[in-house]
Amino acid sequence: MEDYSEIIQKAKELSDLVNSHEITIRYKESLEKLQKDAQSQRLLAELVRIGREVSESMNSPEADKSYGVAELDMLKRELDANMFLKDHLVIQRQYLDLISQVQKRIKNPGN
């Protein structure tokens, strides 16, 4: 039977590095604030819903390209007025980029 203890130890070290990274800390703090902000949660849920619906309609052969334009404009105005949610989305993107970089490094350790 192979000994995976070194791999497990390295995985724990990597996990600790990611969890202690400034971007991860900022993202977790932002998530905690988001959980306490019902208005931002509602706006984020609406943005996700509309984005999904627009994406699905764009992939449909009978797509109406003007789908949801008024609703998107309204949501954009709300987002522009909600600095916390805008900042949260930036932090979320940075966190997802960090995770993506870690995944790429794991797949190609020599690069």
Kindly state the mean pLDDT as a whole number?
88
Radius of gyration using CA atoms only: 20 Å
Low-confidence stretches: none
Largest sheet: none
Series of secondary-structure elements, N-terminal to C-terminal: HHHHH
Distance between the termini: 30 Å
Task: Report the strand count.
Answer: 0
- Enumerate how many helices there are, as a single number: 5
How much helicity do the residues have? over 70%
Q: Give the helix/strand class.
A: mainly alpha
Strand content: under 5%
| Outline type | extended
Short description:
By secondary structure, the protein is an all-alpha fold. 80% of the residues lie in helices and 0% in strands. α2 (22-35) packs across α5 and α3 (38-58) runs antiparallel to α4.
Written overview of the protein:
This protein has 111 residues and is an all-alpha fold. It has a domain at 31-98. The protein has five helices and no strands. The chain starts with a helix and ends with a helix.
Topology record:
Blueprint: H1 5-20, H2 22-35, H3 38-58, H4 69-81, H5 83-107
Keywords:
mainly alpha; 111 residues; single chain; 5 helices
